[in-house]
Specification:
This protein is of the alpha/beta class. Helices cover about 45% and strands about 15% of the residues. The protein contains 28 helices and 27 strands. The strands form seven sheets. An eight-stranded parallel sheet has the order 16-15-14-5-2-1-18-17. A six-stranded antiparallel sheet has the order 19-21-22-27-24-25. A hairpin with a 2-residue loop joins strand 8 and strand 9. It is globular and about 85 Å long. The chain starts with 8 loop residues before the first strand and ends with a helix. The C terminus is likely disordered.
């Protein structure tokens, strides 16, 4: 653990249009909000126009589209003036190659082939011939459009280098002499000769296991860390690396005092390996916190509804096996081919089938020693059950996979992680729509909610093992924003009403894919009111990701038109619009209650809390790029000033109550970290005690309401009370002082559905 981990971070999606100078301009607001560190998207030079920065093309410089080094220095000065630190995002697994001329290393590889000084940078299978670049139209005559201009090959807007001594003749003849071959975009998934990030051909895998590649791609970031200009590093997608443990050991050695968190997606019950890091980026916390506000008793009702709507019982296990197998054999066919070639003792097609089945049956993203053997055994057993005809091939490749020194064993985990991500997060999450509030990165739709006891066990373990891990509720990768999920959680308390309503809507405005229709209606209710164009963009992306009735590779115009017609009906049909608005309005107050509750829990539980840009107010964002929309910081700054002037808003006022919760909690954590050093559940006593979750962090007590509709049906808090310490405590949100002992919840939670109790002196200091 670093000497001083952050107290709290605030994530900003720096990008062209909101560069480092724009970020520097909100540092005063972040300081007032109460964070200790700014946490940025990647800063290094990315593909021109990149909206996210995860496609780095030059590791030697700050992106000029973000303002370059001069703007970074101005941001550092602004942060230092407010005594705030900086956490940066890095991308070790891959580099951007969609625009070859923008990436000097890739350009040189294309020009010189194996003789390039950068040939070892990228994970290229040179033994399979020329480097395939899938950029051509799906037309046998596409190469007729190739031109030779200024000593380069040009295909429409694409530019490619020409090797020395090969530039004579027409464009086709010159092309045939290069170290690369331009092919149809459709051949990428099946025939590509370089490892990618998932199935994105514009992101080529880096070989950071090579010390020279690590040094070259990390020199600038590590120089910043050594100079004290970076306090924390977020590592993107470590599961894509050949040797994540070795990489993280090298990174920790190079930056021993830096807070280090990894974007590691843990499956239900899986623990983070004992790596030299401070924790994850918080998806495990997101699942635990979000599930706490879902009524676990409704699982049966939603399962029945799903069966009625789709006309069949859908098994999550069978669905994800099918989607993962499709990912392995179609989207990632090129990677599968490369692995099968490493097992020549098995007939090629059998090796491919066996490896694909093992990847589809692998229960987690990837295995790590010594636990990898257990996961591999589970996958072997399940693969054998599903494909007994492959028993010989399965046994042969499994023997190879048990040997950690075998190249097949070293590369196979890179496949299983990609198969899990593409098969589950990017496909099954859009197909299985039983209850989409749980279809979230780090969560599992198969587990319907989290009980308070289960949450307390999770938080207690986190305090012991990973006290400096990151916690979060929203990121640039979440499928729905935190407040959308919080409102959808209300439906778990209204299974009967929801079933009746969604059946009526689906009958009135039918779609040929009822599972996706259920996802559409849940999403609309969760985000309503939402601008028409945003919902249109979302449903088209979601339907193509599901790849059931349409897809990215082969869009179905008829289905997509039907989908857009349904969306238009939501806005243009008066009765439908009124019904949708009425239901959304009916569940919104309980959704606000859930939002405040889950936010307080996330901000106060063990770990370093992150606030994703803009989510300190109500936020109805959906999947990217929707969740990267511009944030109005002027509105937030003005509202925070009103709160600091003594205004105590009602819950339904433009998200001001959420800003109150966020700012007061973050200020307390920053001013008094000594009050957040342990974890103990605080019991409630009375007839509705299941509707409250409370815990003591070592001097500060967080209290949150859960399942608010059930609480209302029970008549409110009645005689339920919380056992508080005997000393006086003050609620930071209302200013009320409580003398301890059995404190009635109807008093404690009279104004807000949450309370943050601290010693009076600490709370006054934090709010000053």
């Amino acid at each position: 653990m670093p000497a001083t981990p952050p107290k709290a971070t605030y994530r900003v999606q720096v990008r062209p249009g909101f560069d480092l100078d724009a970020t520097a301009a909100i540092v005063d607001y972040l300081d007032d909000l109460g964070v200790s560190h700014l946490y940025t998207a990647p800063l290094l030079t990315a593909t021109p126009g990149s909206p996210h920065g995860y496609d780095v093309v030059d590791h030697r410089a700050v992106s000029p589209e973000l303002g370059g080094e001069a703007a970074r220095q101005r941001l550092l000065r602004a942060l230092r003036d407010k005594q705030l630190g900086l956490v940066v995002d890095i991308v070790p697994n891959h580099a951007g190659v969609a625009v070859p001329a923008a990436n000097p290393a890739w350009w040189d590889v294309l020009r010189r082939g194996r003789d390039s000084g950068y040939a070892d940078w990228f994970d290229i299978d040179w033994d399979r011939g020329r480097l395939l670049l899938p950029v051509l139209a799906d037309d046998p005559a596409a190469l007729d459009d190739l031109k030779l201009v200024d000593g380069e090959l040009r295909y429409h807007e694409h530019r490619f280098p020409v090797a020395d001594g090969t530039g004579d003749g027409d464009a086709r003849a010159v092309h045939d002499r290069q170290h690369y071959e331009l092919v149809s975009w459709r051949r990428g998934d099946a025939e590509l000769t370089y490892r990618r990030f998932f199935a994105i051909t514009g992101l080529a895998g880096l070989r950071v296991e090579d010390p020279a590649v690590f040094a070259a791609t990390h020199e600038l970031i590590l120089r910043w860390a050594a100079a004290g200009e970076v306090d924390g590093i977020r590592v993107d997608h470590p599961d894509g690396l050949r040797d994540p443990a070795g990489y993280l050991a090298r990174l920790r050695q190079a930056a021993p005092q830096t807070w280090l968190v990894v974007e590691k997606i843990l499956e239900y019950g899986e623990e983070l390996p004992d790596w030299p890091v401070d924790g994850t980026t918080g998806y495990d916390s997101l699942a635990a916190v979000g599930g706490l506000f879902v009524d676990t008793d409704a699982e049966g009702d939603f399962t029945v509804l799903d069966t009625q709507l789709t006309g069949r019982h859908t098994s999550w296990e069978d669905l994800t096996h099918a989607t993962k197998l499709a990912a392995a054999t179609k989207l990632l066919a090129a990677e599968l081919t490369r692995l099968a070639a490493l097992a020549p003792e098995v007939p090629t097609e059998q090796a491919r089938a066996a490896l694909a089945e093992l990847a589809a049956a692998f229960p987690v993203y990837r295995g790590y020693p010594p636990h990898g053997a257990r996961h591999l055994a589970t996958a072997r057993s399940e693969a054998g059950r599903r494909r007994p005809d492959l028993v010989v091939a399965l046994d042969a490749v499994t023997r190879r996979l048990r040997n950690p020194d075998d190249e097949l064993a070293q590369r196979f985990p890179q496949l299983t992680g990609a198969v899990m991500a593409k098969g589950v997060e990017d496909t099954a999450f859009y197909r299985w729509s039983r209850f989409v509030a749980l279809n979230e990165v780090g969560d599992s739709p198969a587990y319907f909610g989290v009980s308070p006891a289960e949450f307390h066990r999770f938080a207690t373990a986190q305090q012991v093992r990973w006290p400096a891990t990151m916690t979060t509720l929203s990121t640039h990768d979440t499928k729905r924003g935190e407040d959308v999920r919080a409102r959808l959680a209300v439906l778990s308390e209204l299974p009967g009403r929801w079933a009746e309503q969604v059946k009526a809507w689906m009958e009135y405005a039918p779609l040929p894919d009822p599972a996706f229709a259920h996802l559409l209606w849940q999403t609309a209710v969760g985000a309503w009111p939402i601008e028409r164009e945003r919902l249109h963009a979302y449903v088209e992306k979601a339907a193509r990701e599901a790849a059931a009735s349409t897809s990215w590779a082969d869009p179905d115009p008829a289905f997509e038109q039907a989908l857009h017609d349904v969306v238009d009906l939501m806005y243009d049909d008066p009765s439908l619009h009124d019904e949708l608005t009425e239901l959304a309005a009916a569940i919104t107050p309980a959704g606000w209650c859930n939002s405040l509750g889950q936010k307080l829990v996330q901000l106060t539980m063990p770990g370093v809390p992150d606030t994703y840009q803009g989510t300190e107010l109500w936020d109805n964002s959906l999947v990217d790029p929707d969740n990267r929309r511009p944030v109005d910081f002027d509105v937030r700054r003005e509202m925070l000033a009103r709160l600091d002037g003594g205004w105590r808003p009602p819950v339904d006022t433009d998200g001001a109550a959420k800003l109150l919760v966020v700012s007061r909690t973050l200020r307390l954590r920053r001013a008094h970290p000594e009050l957040f050093t342990s974890y103990r559940p605080v019991p409630a006593h009375g007839p509705v005690s299941r509707h409250v979750v409370a815990f003591d962090r070592g001097g500060v007590i967080a209290v949150a309401t859960r399942l608010p509709l059930g609480l209302a049906r029970a008549g409110g808090w009645c005689d339920t009370a919380l056992s508080l310490p005997v000393n006086e405590m003050k609620d930071l949100f209302t200013g009320r002082v409580y003398s301890g002992g059995e404190t009635p919840l109807h008093d404690l939670l009279a104004d807000y559905p949450v309370a943050l109790l601290a010693p009076p002196t600490a709370s006054v200091e934090a709010a000053s």
